[in-house]
Fold this protein.
Amino acid sequence: MIRTEDEYRVGLRRLEESKQAITNTRAALLEQGLDAAMIDMLLASMRALQRDVQEEVDAYVDSVLKLVHLSVVRLVPLPRNVPVPPVAVVA
């Protein structure tokens, strides 16, 4: 579970690294002559880990955006330690 902006940034970095690792691994497996079904099976665990990180990042963004929304609706200032992450979809 992501609780801080630093952990959020680490999560985003892990997502990018996992995307690159999947791309590189897929290319290497294709070079070895494996068929698409076998490659998908071999990459399934990497994709599962990527989905887990994506879910953590999404949950953090949702929680921060809810906090921002509540602050705006109630006109209550945000605590100083609450970062407002950029809204971006990482696929």
In short: The radius of gyration is 18 Å.
